[in-house]
Amino acid sequence: MAKSKWNRMVTIPVYRLSQAELEEAIHDWAEGSEDLEELLWLCYKSHVETSSCCANWYIDFRIDSSNREYLKRMLALAEDVEESQVHILPHAANFYCGPDWWREDIGINTPGYGEILFQALKGAFTEEDVPKGCYPRILDLYDFLKDKEADLSIRLKRNKRGQYRLAFEAKKSNPNIGFFVKLLHFTDLSRYCHGYERERYYECVCHADTYEEMNEKIDKILKVFQEKWDLVPPTEFTDNMTLLEKAVMMRKKFGGTPEGVQKLNQWINENKDPEDREVHYQF
């Protein structure tokens, strides 16, 4: 089977595609899943911007430009899908995944239950009444943190018994880890490390037995953040920063104009590992 020109691990601006190209691309991205293909069309027609997906596993959305109302409805519907979780990974991309590599995503995944997930998410566009749910609250946390350059990942999961798990994750190389741990201590989140490659991370976690209890805990976290957050985003590079983190800062410096993008490309190519391929995006 010939390799698809649309599945190249690179985000593709769909507004640049012809109708025929769009139909071909969405069909390929769905990887044989009719429910995922229908969901992608519903998202496209409702201005919910997707960034990646995988049949029987997950779908990711752009937070900054997606239609928030539909995004909230999908998050709420995902809550009832077995073993689902939502996550926001700040600056998790790399320079080679498309010209908008710097933008943040919110992902919904449920390994092995993708078809059930996609069927449920379609209801955000077709059903009148959608439960409020707890998953949409992750957007409230994102809205507070998005301009803080905290480099914190957020994960929220509901298990089969209806219990919730909320986790904030920071790399141990993060120079502000002490601030985060101290701040999250006020919210009754405890620090511990576990799981895949968790030795490189601090993970602060809280649990709740009910929807109401988790909502109360999220309210408390936001209150503590608003009252005690006094960390100023960095204006200079630190020794622990990755090239990606530095590039996010440089993007703000250069701006999003074609000239700024050209300067950023040049800066990345001058500072990247010589063995990595060059970055040369044009807008």
Question: Could you write a compact summary of the structure shown?
Answer:
With 283 residues, this protein is α+β, with helices and mostly antiparallel strands. The chain is 39% helix and 16% strand.
Structural features, described:
The protein starts with 18 loop residues before the first helix and ends in a 12-residue tail after the last helix. By secondary structure, the chain is of the alpha+beta class. The model is unreliable at 191-197 (pLDDT under 50). The relative contact order is 0.10. The chain folds into three domains: 1-131, no CATH class; 134-233, Alpha-Beta Plaits (2-Layer Sandwich), CATH 3.30.70; 238-283. It has an eight-stranded antiparallel sheet with strand order 1-2-4-3-5-6-8-7. A hairpin with a 3-residue loop joins strand 1 and strand 2. The protein is built from nine helices and eight strands.
List keywords for this structure.
alpha+beta; 283 residues; 39% helix; flat; 9 helices; Alpha-Beta Plaits
Largest sheet, order of strands side by side? 1-2-4-3-5-6-8-7
Distance between the termini: 32 Å
Largest sheet: 8 strands, antiparallel
Molecular shape: flat
> Count the strands?
8
Chart the SSEs and their pairings:
Elements: H1 19-29, H2 34-45, E1 50-54, E2 58-62, H3 68-78, E3 85-88, E4 105-109, H4 114-126, H5 137-145, E5 153-158, E6 164-171, H6 177-185, E7 190-192, E8 201-208, H7 211-228, H8 243-254, H9 258-271
Antiparallel strand pairs: 1-2, 2-4, 3-4, 3-5, 5-6, 6-8, 7-8
Helix pairs in contact: 2-4, 3-4, 5-7, 8-9
